[in-house]
Amino acid sequence: MTSGRPLADPDRWQRATPLSLVGGVRVAQVVYAVAELGIADLLADGPADVEHLARSAGCDARALGRLLRAAASVGVLREKEPGTYELAAPANLLRSDVPDSQLAAVRYVGRFVAAAYVHVVDSVRTGSPVFDRAFGLPFYEYLDSDSDANNLVYQDAHARDWELATRCAEQLDLSRYRVIADIGGGTGTFLAYLLDRAPHARGILYDRPEALPVGATFLAQKGVRDRVDLVGGDFFADRLPDADLYILKNTLHSLDDSAAIGVLKQAHEAMCANPGAQLLICEHIVSPDSQWDDAKLIDIDMLLIHGGRERTLGEWHDLARAAGLRLGVTGGVLTCVCAVDAAP
Q1: What residues make up the domain containing 192?
Q2: What is the mean pLDDT of residues 10-27?
Q3: For a disulfide at 188, which of 27, 174, 215, 301, Cβ 3.0-4.6 Å?
Q4: 244 and 172, same structural domain?
Q5: What gap in Å lies between CA 48 and CA 240, rounded to an integer?
């Protein structure tokens, strides 16, 4: 659940001690608390003192002062004068009103990923996801039961999908596609971006029926709703709709190999029924050596939350072959995210 941006300076990890590495959980949760409390938005107009921030955020002033002091110590905020804080450069990305905001992503990681990591040892021992141990239900069942959590996940997906679409669109000749089907399309963000650049094309947003209203709302906001068919279904079992271009983005990494092959076989069957159709897969490609790679940590996220995995290029080729597809890389790796063109 990422954009491909590196989490940190990779050289830092090579210099760190085990104790300093494990202590990073403190920094992560301080940043999460700053995000969850909306501190960056409260400081958007300029510096403010702790008392004012505490009243606005509904916090104990002394406790909030300690949190802000910790955040300033790692460069997220600046203490302009004793008890008065302002945004440092990183905190601008925690504002809700900036185009490249990371607020939803930080809240998602701090709330869901961090809780799952409490059970990382159990997950490694069993090879199974542990999200249900932290939240009482598997991931998607939990979202269905908690509207606030569901909204947060969609906010995070919207930001990631928009950035991903800008990168993938550069690799596509959209003039050749009349019907574009976004499979598991979620918010409709990715599809809306492509349709805006392909005014001749129609779209299909395919997802769980309960997920479609969110996408419909966003597509309407972008002025392309009248060009999109909303199709509810189960991509594990139901026949996919007819299209010229099928898109699977940040979907297969949440699945184990068996389930991912099943989805690819569904896509393959649909493509065979629509000669000339293509499949675009937007996923991370894990570097094969020991160098820093954000995807290697996201891989553990996928294990803990979904039981899925990130994959090397060789593993993607193996997966495609098992589903009867031939895989070709159209754009190479796009900052850890790859646009992959699969044709039967």
Answers
A1: 157-287+308-343
A2: 78
A3: 215
A4: yes
A5: 54
